[in-house]
Amino acid sequence: MAEATSETGSETMHGAAREATPALPARALRGERPFFVYNEAELIAAVAAARAFWSGYSRPGFRLYYSVKSNPQPRLLQALRPHVDGFDVSSLAEARLIRNALPAATRMTWSGPAKTPRALRELPALRPEALHLDSFDEWLALGNDPTPRTLRLNLDGVPGHKLGFSRRELARLAARAPTGFIGLHAYLGRESFSREAFAAALAQARDVVLRHPDWFAEDGIFLGAGLPIREAVAAHPDIFAPDAFAPEPGGARVVHLECGRGLVQSCGSYAARVLSVKSTPEGRSVIIDGGLQHMASHLLSPRFGKESVRLAFFRGAEPLDAAAGEPARINGSLSLWHDVMIEGEPAPKDLKRGDWVAMSPTGAYGWTAASNQFLGPTPVSEYFRRVDGGFEDVTPPHLLSYHQAAAPE
C-alpha cells in the first residue's frame, strides 16, 4: 500500500528545480529502521533522458542496457524492463537473478572480472547474448564455448587497470590468432563521460580493429559510458552536449550502451533517524543511525561534488524547515573517520534525537552494494580447530540477500 507524506516543504539546495521535500512512506517514518525509497517516475525519466542524450552520439538503433550491479533490487528490475533493451550483469548471482526474476526472453550481457569457473559452466543455461571478456585467462577458460564474446579494452588513461585487456594482454592474445569476436567493450569510468573521452575510446577501439581485422566477425562497440545523473548532464552542456562532437562518417559505431548509476541514482532517497546532535570543535555534528554501512558509495559525486545532493528533515511525518538552520556535518554511526555523508549544509536549529534525515540521490550502490550483497560474492566459511587437532565448521548463516532470495542454490 502506497503511503506518502505531503510533498510540500522547504526548498532544496544548490538552486536546482526539484520537488521541495521527497515523498516518503508514512509507515516508515513511524518506525525506527533506516530505509530507501525508489521513485518510479524518476526512474522512467532517467531512462528517457539517457536515450535522448545518447541519440546525439550514436548511430540509430543503439540499445540501452541497465547495469544490474548498480542496484539489483528485483522491483527496480521489473520497473526498468519495459523501458530498457536488456540488462548487463557482472556475476553469476546477478545472472541467476535476471533469469529468475524476469521473463525468459529478457536480453542479458555479462561483463566484469568475476567470471568464476562455476559461472562459465552455467553459461548454456543462462544464455547471455554476449560475454565481455576481461582477460587472457578468461579467454582461455572459455575454450570452445559458443557464447558470443567481445573483447574488453583497458582504455588508456582510465582508472581501474584490472578491467579489460591491456596492451600486453592483447599481444599475448595475438599469438593465439583468435577469431569470432562480435565487437569491443570499453568502460570510461564513473561519471567520466566527455566528448573527448568518448572520441579517445573510439580511436583506441578503431586501432585494435585495424590492427587485428581477422579477430572480429562484427565491429560494434559495447560501451559503459560513465554517464552521471541526468541533472548533472543538464547542468553542464559545455561537457556533455554533442554539438561539438564530430563522429566519423556514418556515425559512431556504438550499438550497445550500458548505464547503471545514470539510470537509477536519481530515483533513490535514503532516510535514517538522528541519534545525536553534538557541538564539536569543528562545528555542529549530526550522527544518524546509518551511513556507509547502508550507502557503500559516497553521497557526493567525485566529479560534481554536492551540487545534485538534497537533504530533507522530518519530525515524525512532518517536514522540518532547514532554510534558516545552522551548518552541520551529517555523520554515519560507524566509528570511522570517513563515515561522513555531507558537511556544511544547513540543518534545522532544533534538530534532535529521533528526527529523520533524508538524503538523495541514493538510488545506486546503496544497500545492495554492502559487502555481503554486492555482486553476490562467493561466501566465506569459518572453521575452528580444537586442541585435539579436529576441525569444526562454525560458519554462521549468511544474511539473506536479493540474489539468494531470487535464485537459491
Describe the structure.
With 409 residues, the chain is α/β, with parallel strands linked by helices. The chain folds into two domains: 26-39 and 268-368, Lyase, Ornithine Decarboxylase, Chain A, domain 1; 40-264, TIM Barrel, CATH 3.20.20.10. Helices cover 23% and strands 24% of the residues. Strands 1, 10, 11, 12, 13, 14, 15 and 16 form an eight-stranded mixed beta sheet that branches. The longest helix is centred in the middle third of the chain and has 17 residues, at 195-211. It is globular. 39% of the residues are buried.
Name its key features.
409 residues, TIM Barrel, single chain, alpha/beta, Lyase, Ornithine Decarboxylase, Chain A, domain 1, disordered N terminus
Helical region count? 13
Report the sheet with the most strands, covering strand number, pairing sense and barrel closure. 8 strands, mixed
What is the CA-atom radius of gyration, in angstroms? 23 Å
State the fourth-level CATH superfamily of the largest domain. Answer: Alanine racemase
How many angstroms separate the termini? Answer: 31 Å
Helix content: 10-25%
Compact description:
This protein is of the alpha/beta class. The chain is built from 13 helices and 18 strands.
